[in-house]
Amino acid sequence: LHCIALHKIVDLLHIAIREHKQLQTTMKTFAISLLLVTALIRMDTALSSSHLDDEVPTEKAEKPKLKPPTRLPEVTHRVYMDVEISNTPTPTKGRIEFGLFGKLAPKTVENFRSLCACDKGNGKVSDKPLCYKGSKFHRIIPDFMIQGGDITEGNGVGGESIYGGYFEDETFEVLHNKLYLLNMANKGPDTNGSQFFINTVKTSWLDSKNVVFGMVLKGFKLIDQIEVVGTNGGEPIVDVVIESSGVLPLVDTKEQ
C-alpha cells in the first residue's frame, strides 16, 4: 500500500511540474507580447506626433467669409394691424406697426398698403373684399414665423392681390438675417398674393425665395404672444384675428 501511494505521489508531482512549466511558458509568452505591444504603441505615438508637427500651419487661417449685416432700406410707408388673440379668460389685444420699403419694392408695398387700407373694393378673381380686416393669422410655428393674409379662404390655400391673382417677385435684396421682417408668402416663384409672414428667427434658407418688403416697427411683444399659441404643425390653438388695419402717417407724431 505504501508503494502504491508513493507512485501516485510521484505521478502527481510530474503532472504539477509539467503544468508549472506550461504556466511558465505561457507567462513568458504573455510578457513578451506585452512588451512588443508597448513598444509599438510608443513608436506609433512618436510617428503621430512627428506627423502632427509637420501639419502645423505657419500662417493664421483666414476668417470665414460671412454675409454682410442686413442694411434695411428706407421706410416710405407706415401701416398697422390691430390684432386679438382669443385666449381665455381674457383675450389679448394689441397693435403691430410696420414700416414698408416703397423704393425697394413699390408694387409689393402698394399691394400690402392697400390691403391694410381696404381701399380697392372687391377682388377681380374672388369677388371678396381686398382687405385684411377680419382675416386670421392661420399658420403660426414657434421659433419660425407667424403667417396671415388669406383674405379669401382663411386657411392658407387662398388669397388675392390687388392686381388680380398673383404678381411677380420684385426683389430679393434684403436678406433674412434679421428678426421681425415682413415677407410675402408664396407657392413658388412669382406667386405673390395677399398672404404674408413675419419671421421670429433668422431664416437664411428663405433668401432668394421670399420677398422682404418691410419690417416691424412696434408690437414685438404682441408678436411673441402670437407665436406662443402656435404649434409645430402650424395650426394655432386659438384664433388670432386682425380686427382692423390701416395706414399711419410716415412720421409718428407721438415720438416727437
Task: Give the topology.
Elements: H1 2-55, E1 77-85, E2 92-100, H2 106-117, E3 139-141, E4 145-148, E5 181-184, E6 196-199, E7 212-218, H3 220-228, E8 240-248
Antiparallel strand pairs: 1-2, 1-8, 2-7, 3-4, 4-6, 5-6, 5-7
Structural class category: alpha+beta
What is the strand content?
15-25%
Instruction: Count every helix, treating DSSP H or I runs of 4 or more residues as helices.
Output: 3
Arrangement of strands in the largest sheet: 3-4-6-5-7-2-1-8
CA(first)-CA(last) distance: 125 Å
Shape: elongated
Helix content: 25-40%
Q: Which residue ranges are poorly predicted, with pLDDT under 50 across at least 5 consecutive positions?
A: 47-66
Radius of gyration: 37 Å
What's the total number of strands? 8
- Encode the helix/strand succession as letters: HEEHEEEEEHE
**Quick one: biggest sheet?**
8 strands, antiparallel
Chain-averaged pLDDT: 83
Characterization of the model:
The protein starts with a helix and ends in an 8-residue tail after the last strand. It has an eight-stranded antiparallel β-sheet with strand order 3-4-6-5-7-2-1-8, with helices on one face. The protein has helices at residues 2-55, 106-117, 220-228, and strands at residues 77-85, 92-100, 139-141, 145-148, 181-184, 196-199, 212-218, 240-248. It is an alpha+beta fold and 256 residues long. Helices cover 29% and strands 19% of the residues. It is elongated.
Question: In a nutshell, what does this entry contain?
Answer:
This protein has 256 residues and is α+β, with helices and mostly antiparallel strands. 29% of the residues lie in helices and 19% in strands.
